[in-house]
Design goal:
Chains A, B: InterPro entries: DUF1989. Chains A, B: This is DUF1989 domain-containing protein. 2 copies of one chain form a homodimer. By secondary structure, chain A is mostly beta strands. Chain A has one domain. Helix content of chain A is about 10%, strand content about 35%. Chain A is built from 3 helices and 13 strands. In chain A, strand 9 and strand 10 form a beta hairpin. The longest helix of chain A is centred in the middle third of the chain and has 10 residues. Chain A is globular. Chain A starts with a strand and ends with a strand.
């Protein structure tokens, strides 16, 4: 298993048919995931299209994840948690400044993804809303209020996705206090043929 | 007042400090809105950042709308409805194919926005999740289920936004049956100095 250190990120290629297993090694840790079509990087994972076609904000095993062009990029094929977020953008220095009031903010998952995608020519402006694996976001249907709670994932919980096209994938071990119950931990991942 | 005909769209410049009034002329009609920084079109309206900082999915008077770079693009300054959507992508030929099962699908708000933005060099891949004015989307906080209901807006209801930077704005009179209670109607708009 590959390890993403706390508050860092990485990127890699996931070929069509390959599976990616993402493991919450210690529990209560979030991993932001973003992906692009390897053969045309203007095609990217779309929260709006995915939620629209799934008719739910709780995406889990069996749900296809769509690109901005309405093509399926991957499916979730296993999921021991069943609670993830696809509403919010990756934490960033702006998040820490605006929400947490930090004076010298960390670059967050957004900065970590920017660095990880640099080698593929993907720029910061190309990073939209990410799929935030294990992130526990509640929505109050009456008031609209959005809350970020500690993940429901325990040690060794995991999600497995299967690529439906060749993908460039970015993945982080999240840097935001609220998302991880105020403790920064690693994330594990494996590519399975 | 300018009129957007049923199932069509338009684009225009909204300068910093100008207000845009969007009117549901007949009631129960949706208008998808997208905008870009006039001086740098890589900066675009971001659902993820806006919802994250507002901590609600029900955006109304007083809420700032953020770009992907966490700058405020506009504020809602008046709103007689209070119920809009920022979760879903514009309806498109793919929406009509996947959700409605249409054989010869309409190009939808997405196609209308693509045409409207062409003159500014904004391409289809540059159009992410839009702010869907008057669109009535419910989320069940327990199950995650997303439903599209008839808008709560009545004839002459409106929303007014004030630009916080110079913007290229795209606006539609929505083309999706469910969004408008199965009747296609026009949308009105005025730019106020």
């Amino acid at each position: 298993m590959n390890i993403i250190n706390p508050r860092s990120g990485t990127s890699f290629i996931l070929k069509k048919g390959q599976k990616l297993k993402i493991t919450d090694i210690e529990g209560e840790q979030v991993a932001d995931l973003m992906c692009y079509n390897l053969n045309d990087k203007k095609e990217y994972l779309s929260s709006g299209r995915t939620i629209d076609y799934a008719e739910t904000i709780f995406l889990t095993k069996g749900h296809p994840f769509y690109s901005n062009r309405s093509n399926v990029m991957f499916n979730i094929v296993e999921d021991t948690v069943g609670r993830h977020d696809f509403l919010l953008t990756p934490c960033s220095s702006d998040t820490f400044r605006i929400i947490y009031g930090h004076k010298n903010p960390h670059q967050g998952c957004f900065g970590n993804l920017c660095n990880a995608f640099k080698e593929y020519g993907i720029t910061p402006d190309d990073i939209p809303t990410t799929f935030n694996v294990f992130m526990h976001v509640t929505v109050n249907g009456e008031t609209g209020r959005v809350d970020v709670l500690p993940p429901t994932s325990k040690a060794e919980d995991y999600i497995m996705i299967e690529a439906e096209m060749d993908l460039i994938v970015g993945l982080t071990a999240c840097s935001a206090e609220m998302s991880n119950n105020y403790s920064f931990k690693p994330i594990g991942y494996e590519i399975i043929e």
